[in-house]
Queue: 2 jobs
Job 1
Amino acid sequence: MHSVSMQGRQAPARRPLKKLAINGGYTLNGNIEISGSKNAALPMMAASILSDQDIVLHGIPDLADVRTMIILLESMGIEINKNHKDSLKFNASGVDSRFASYELVKTMRASIMVLGPLLAKYGEAKVSLPGGCAIGARPVDLHIEGLEKLGARIEIRDGYILASADRLIGSSYCFPKKSVTGTANILMAATLAEGQTEIVNAACEPEIVQLGELLNAMGAKIDGVGGDCIKIEGVENLVSAEIEIIPDRIEAITMIIAGIITQGELKIENIDPSHIERPIDLIRQCGAMLEISERSLFVKGPDQILPISFETEAYPGIPTDIQAQLMVLNSIANGDSKITETIFENRFMHVLELKRMGANISIDGSTAKISGVSRLNSAPVMATDLRASAALILAGLIAKGETVIDRIYHLDRGYESLEKKLSNIGAKVRRID
Ligand code: UD1
């Protein structure tokens, strides 16, 4: 066993090329394998702080965000070893710092999820406030309010959250608005609190369910994950556990859309169909053929794509993380559609870029109105965030000519070897500088 290197953790040997060039118009055919979920991996990595024993995560995706979390955890003294190919073993018995710097938190907001575990285990934490991001203000006030409800003393000073507690005390906290990482933070903190905690209006995402499963395997007493109300009976300490990370449902849907818009035939493997039921029902309305098996899905694009209108919603609704990709599908659909974004206030940054490629989209508050055009044209475009970069790649796959997408590092945060996977099924994609 050797010290982990999820490629380039220490000194990035090769600077990743920052643009992606796509020659559009090729039909995608073949098999594609979905990676482990980023949003499941990150909170479970943070959960390793709660135990002095080994926590092993299998099927961990090799992504920039995972590497950032590794750097953060190692900076606190957590030992991380690579078990084999895509398994990591975490041991937090040597934690000697409870600090998360602005430099790391600003690169990845999910770093905020170390706050709850540090506070619960060590009674103190100093974690940077994340600040704004491309898709909106994204405050962490509910994370703070929830931890205060468990008895934490919290002060904001010089851009940092300074939190302390003797031992957290179980309590009831009702999220005024559902928050995924907020729920993860309070859930993790409550496992080591004294007495019972109740999280009301909790996030129900499969990634929260899996976090609950890991924590229970570590000896926590949690009931009700996946529902609106989670009950946690605090325990004195947590032990060793291992788990296989669930497949990334956002990557799976992105690939389904890629198959549809290129009028291809794809077998998408390593998926959990129960995690994407609503998106699949919605996508069927565009006329695509979708055949679901236990762990895979076959998709065949229709001759003519019908428009699909929807609102983004918390799970089990249509995820905001696939809004941009579905907008590309609607851009070339035969008719008009409306997409309303209800989770983030500024998540239409991709619209201007899609319009530069010939899409006919107008924005009215939180609703985008799309009139399908017969085809998109290539253009130099700029990725603004993770899911917007996936949408621009999808647009590039169907645009006439070569589309060059700048700031593709956003993509590397959350999609494992996407261009390699797409190349394997017939896309003409390459990195350039
Ligand atoms: C998580 C996901 C992200 C996804 C998002 C919504 C991870 C690592 N990231 O982000 O991919 O797009 O859920 O499904 O899992 N809010 C507050 N105060 C808070 C917390 C949240 O006002 O303290 C608001 C947010 O600004 C947003 C809404 O609540 O409008 C939902 O955000 P939240 O679920 O917290 O998103 P994240 O957990 O950051």
Job 2
Amino acid sequence: MKKFILKITAAGAIVASLAYCSTAKKITTTAVSLKDAYKNDFLIGTALNTPQIEERDPKAAALIPVQFNAVTPENCMKAENIHPQWDQYTFDLSDKLVAYAAKHNIKVNGHTLIWHSQLPQFARRIKDVDSFKTFFTNHINTVASRYKGKVFSWDVVNEALNEDGTMRKSIFLDKIGDGFVTEAFRLAEKASPGTELYYNDYNNEQPKKREGCIALVKKVQAAGVRIDGVGIQGHWHLGRVPFKDIEESILAYHALGLKVMITELDIEMLPRNFQGADVNQRQASNPALNPYANGIPDSLLQQQAADYANLFKLFLKHKDKITRVTFWGVNDGQSWLNGWPIPGRTNYPLLFDRAFNPKPAYHAVMALKK
Ligand code: G3I
């Protein structure tokens, strides 16, 4: 009989020990990690929150550089945080993120230049079209040029589409018209040449939204403006991962000459009554919707492991088209899904548990590379 023992060392490396119980012979194999296991396939990323950027939690600080070679700021580069007033920018945390990534040889994906959500109050209040265009231009120029040569890529535009593939009725559409997407890419390219430029959305693996996304990309390309990739966010649900739609979308976006990224991956374990990741959508609180507050059955963790394994099998099949797979958070306790769409729940969407221990899903993803 043999069993694997996995432990996180002080340096954050996961050491696999193959212990043979019958013979008491113990073989310690090589230290392994997600980024190393997938180093010939695609980057493995995570979203970072403020304490993680500032390396305030020793366990997170030890684990992140061992497991991941790409990071996306979860919030600090969003307009509300980085550009709080017309003539005021707050770069401290984003500068720290860039320095942190350089220190650990990690690639940064900037997130995000143009998004209707988490916009600063002053921008929402601008009535005059010319002033709004000036805000739009100044924001992209200032933020993208500050991190020129320091971030590997930008989510230039985030979530500009409705579920049926039409353009979302945002302040950008209202004030600038549907050319705002092309204009954002044009400005980003000018401010930060050499940085990869992506369009990012959730549910854009779904057929109708995918069609809208393809149309949007073609419009940018037809204008002679550079767009390098499409991010499929990947906020999916246990037992309901849309594998066929994901594969068709990887092929469709690649056929446009684009790189494909999975940019915000998590597999949610709790019930809710709608799909997607529109942060403005909420659901009423109800104890029945928080069934695993004191722990989750192993059977569900095994099902999650199977879902993650099938996803990574698909990603490996298309590794010539996929350049990065980023998880939206480091461990379960830090996931946004504990607070949305219902606050105060206990969710389990990632590969590491609340104590930073690898979950069955981690082992399943690693087992594909053995
Ligand atoms: O920083 C403030 C704090 O000062 C305040 O006291 C507290 C009170 O609510 O709020 C804090 O801000 C919160 C912020 O996260 C930082 O924790 C916001 O309320 C909260 O709305 C915000 O949520 C973020 C969400 O985007 C909102 O836009 C999540 O952390 C973040 O994971 C999520 O990320 C998005 C991607 O950017 C785009 N795709 C969907 C994805 C999930 O919604």
